[in-house]
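Bug: token stream looks shifted between consecutive jobs. Job 1:
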Amino acid sequence: MRCLAVAAWFLTCAVGCSFSTSGVGPGEHPDGATGDDGPVSTNDGATPGPDAGPMCPGQGMPCDGPDTDLCPEGVIICDGANPICTDTTDNLVELCNGVDDDCDGTIDNGFDLQHDPTNCGSCGTTCTNAHGTTGCMTSACAPVCASGYQSCDGDLANGCELLVDTNPMCSTFVPPTSFVNGDSSSASLTASGHVEAWYAVNVRESLLSSSAPLTARITLDNPPGVDYDLYVYCVNCGMLAASSLQGPGVQESVDIGRDDNFGDVSFPIMIEVRYYDDTDNCAGWTLTVTGNVTTDVRNCN
């Protein structure tokens, strides 16, 4: 719009201007002056001044959009007097990770750490068992072993890792180098383990001028709940001298003997520790061979 001066004390406006006193130039207003539409603002633009306050409720505050989580991932902006949230992100789903992913105030909600085999006791602890079945009970993996397997490494999460029923072959063993005296005192031999095994021992004649028989006693100590049986062979793997087949936790014992009729009658024995049953105990067995025992057995003649 444009204003035209008619007299020093009077202004005539082409469109919509108000009257003014002389000495006030175009576009200027004395303090307290009013126009036709009420008080005149001293700000020429449309933007409110710094003390004008927000243009809409909550302007600049964090906000959550229309997703299913409760996480404030946006801020409020104004569309005129209408507040709009800038959060257009996807839903944040709760994970089992020790973090409140969906911002509902509860960490890892929806996960059953007492019974979930993929998060057993803690997030990410997965119960597996390649040799049997498994599950999660009261926050601990509970493997059930297939026959011949045991969980003995202290890690229930990996299931039954140890094969105890290995079925080793007697023919794979070399001639024995260990010995006990069959007709005089000597140190006993011991071995231990928790899987099937074979051992070869020489029962040696130490008194060549004597006719005393050569004898030995083989014992196998099983811990409670563990059942390995004992088989003893004379001379070769095909000549079974005796066996002991007691129950779990019971000592197995076999005596062997040979008469000394002439010369050096030393002979080898093959000892088999054979798996029968091992319910829930990974404790190992102990094998002992003692020479020169009192027995009437002559099963290796």
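Job 2, same session, no restart:
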Amino acid sequence: MSDVLVNILVTEMLVISAEDVETWTGDPENFAIRQDSLTKEEHIRPCAEHLVLSLLERHKELLISLIQNMLPQIENEPLSGSSAEHAILTGQTEHGQYMVSEGAVRRDALYLVIGDAAYTLHDSIPFPQWFMESLAVLLQPDSQMQAEMGFGAVLLQRRILWLVGCFVQDLTDELRVYLYSSIVALLDSSDMVVRVSAVTTLKLLVEDWDFTDKEFIKVFPMAIQALYAVVADAQEFETRLQALALVGSCVERLSEKSAPFIPAVVDPLPLIWEAAQEQNLLRGAVLTILRHSLTAGE
């Protein structure tokens, strides 16, 4: 009974819907911001997530075995969604036509289950090994891959970024180094949901206890440039605030190592300050960046 129920949850109730895709493409920042605050009253997905966790609590060994068995099966399903042959979600938005393969949709749903159950599964699914064997290739901003997978490419990039945050305590030093460069690259993604997700996950890595400043400094100049580009391109206050706060966190964690790059950090701030005349929180974030920059330069 449990295996049938979990299969229904993953293949029907936890999958992204056409309505979700339309919101993603039409209002990407609000989509990204709202995903962590959806309630059981307004969306079926949080209800299904809660049910999975309840099953896991009561039938732990059985559910772990089911998830372990489902993972290779679903990861072997084709991801190509650029043709109607493999697409399960198709539609038209103001930004054009989209196609998403069944493999991408089901993989996104299963990864959601695994992330929700990360605390329970971390001994059963070694995240560093799984990431390098199955997830790393999907995190690369590859134009050919996106052409073949269609919307499924950004769908899985966003989910994998979220997964990294769920398993942040399991990351090895080697994987952290890899993730620094991969996530910074995704800050320049053509998809705004992916960019916002990259900001969120990079913040978790930068503020984590095991942050490695000597490695992150190698991508710091690109990160600062990309984060300020997010601030410039964002339409929502919350997105701009998150990106600015991350700039401040980066400078704070790198401390004196960031000193050679402080001009690049502070140069954009006057324009941001002027544009935020009615937004005290944004101006507060600017002042925080300046304070950390002064400390780093001492």
